[in-house]
């Protein structure tokens, strides 16, 4: 049983972040891991340790090899050191909550907000995810809402009020704003707890698809259709502000038929993202679960280029062997 306590899953390694070019809730305003990498030391497959990048903010000498290793999922080298950019701690933020009667309205609200503002975070939870959190750790969330949007604003200048108005203009049934740090942290904790709470309901295939902001309503509709057609529960959470969603394909792994339906649903959602011009992974990487889908996104020529880079740096395939390359 996974604890819903957010403190139990607020740990990750810097190396893991670099290897997957990880994202998260605040990437909308503050960027992803690669935006903070100045340099690194990498141990190559044949043994030498090389230093890439440097310590300066601007550095365009030679190929941008640091960025090649960021997101390489351990297939090109072992990152042993990293020089990272630091930012001042952000100012206190306001949290804006909006409940919506349909996923389509929530998707349109996201597009409206992002066309005009740059919140620190803009997160979505659908009804199934909301109820999973309420079942595990009751917080008074609206179980009847089709979707909940959670925005965090630390820019001042009335941005929080404007985000609330975008929610209302897009059809929100309820909008609230809080500047209380404890209340804001509690609301964002609900979003962070969603995955472990959904995992209480069965085995979860955690997807990580991304689409451009105008295609969000279509993606959410396609996921709903897939869940119904495959008779599989797919709670949806995501970093709505950058179009990166986590459809949580949930099933009973003791039931072979349910397992088959879940894996088919997983592929359906991946293909839906690609058909909408999106990606099969926005921040989690390819790993093994999505390796059979990568060629559909990249195409034959780009896949071959990936293989040539892998062969040049790791000709004997000793680094994370058997993965997507």
**SSE order, one letter for each helix or strand:** HHEEHEEHEHEHEHHEEHEEHHH
Strand residue content: 15-25%
Query: Which range best describes the helical content: under 10%, 10-25%, 25-40%, 40-55%, 55-70% or over 70%?
Result: 25-40%
Distance between the termini: 34 Å
Structural class: alpha+beta
Kindly provide the name of the CATH class of the largest domain.
Alpha Beta
SSE inventory with pairings:
Layout: H1 14-20, H2 27-30, E1 37-43, E2 49-53, H3 65-69, E3 78-84, E4 94-100, H4 103-116, E5 121-126, H5 127-136, E6 147-153, H6 159-169, E7 172-178, H7 181-192, H8 194-199, E8 203-206, E9 209-210, H9 216-229, E10 236-239, E11 244-251, H10 256-275, H11 294-298, H12 300-313
Antiparallel strand pairs: 1-2, 1-3, 4-6, 4-7, 5-6, 5-10, 8-11, 9-11, 10-11
Helix pairs in contact: 4-6, 4-9, 9-10
Structural features, described:
This protein is α+β, with helices and mostly antiparallel strands and 325 residues long. It contains 12 helices and 11 strands. It has helices at residues 14-20, 27-30, 65-69, 103-116, 127-136, 159-169, 181-192, 194-199, 216-229, 256-275, 294-298, 300-313, and strands spanning 37-43, 49-53, 78-84, 94-100, 121-126, 147-153, 172-178, 203-206, 209-210, 236-239, 244-251. The strands form 2 sheets. Strands 4, 5, 6, 7, 8, 9, 10 and 11 form an 8-stranded antiparallel β-sheet that branches. The chain has a 3-stranded antiparallel β-sheet with strand order 2-1-3. Strand 1 (37-43) and strand 2 (49-53) form a beta hairpin. Helix 4 (103-116) runs antiparallel to helix 6 (159-169), helix 4 (103-116) packs antiparallel against helix 9 (216-229) and helix 9 (216-229) runs antiparallel to helix 10.
């Amino acid at each position: 049983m996974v604890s819903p306590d957010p403190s139990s899953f607020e740990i990750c390694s810097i190396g893991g972040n670099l290897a997957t070019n990880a994202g998260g809730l605040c990437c909308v305003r503050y960027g992803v891991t690669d935006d903070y990498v100045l340099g690194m030391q990498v141990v190559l497959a044949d043994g030498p340790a090389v230093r890439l990048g440097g310590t300066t903010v601007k550095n365009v000498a030679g190929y941008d090899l640091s960025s090649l290793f960021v997101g390489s999922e351990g297939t090109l080298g072992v990152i042993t050191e990293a020089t990272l950019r630091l930012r001042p701690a952000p100012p206190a933020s306001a949290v804006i909550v909006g409940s919506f009667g349909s996923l389509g309205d929530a998707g349109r609200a996201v597009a409206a907000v992002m066309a005009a503002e740059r919140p620190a975070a803009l997160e979505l939870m659908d009804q199934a995810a909301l109820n999973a959190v309420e079942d595990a750790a009751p917080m008074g969330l609206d179980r009847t809402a089709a979707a909940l949007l959670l925005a965090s604003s630390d820019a001042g200048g009335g941005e929080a009020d404007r985000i609330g108005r975008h929610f209302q203009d897009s059809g929100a049934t309820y909008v609230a704003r809080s500047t209380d740090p404890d209340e804001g942290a509690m609301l964002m904790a609900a979003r962070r707890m969603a995955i472990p709470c959904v995992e209480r309901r069965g085995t979860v295939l955690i997807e990580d698809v991304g689409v451009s902001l105008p295609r969000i309503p279509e993606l959410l509709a396609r996921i709903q259709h897939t869940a119904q057609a495959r008779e599989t529960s797919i709670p949806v959470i995501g970093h709505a502000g950058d179009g990166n969603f986590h459809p949580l394909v949930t099933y009973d792994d003791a039931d072979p038929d349910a397992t088959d339906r879940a894996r088919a649903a997983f592929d359906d959602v991946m293909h839906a993202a690609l058909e909408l011009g999106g990606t099969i992974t926005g921040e989690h990487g390819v790993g093994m679960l999505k390796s059979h889908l990568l060629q559909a996104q990249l195409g034959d020529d780009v896949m071959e280029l990936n293989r040539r880079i892998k062969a040049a740096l790791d000709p004997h395939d000793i680094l994370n062997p058997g993965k997507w390359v």
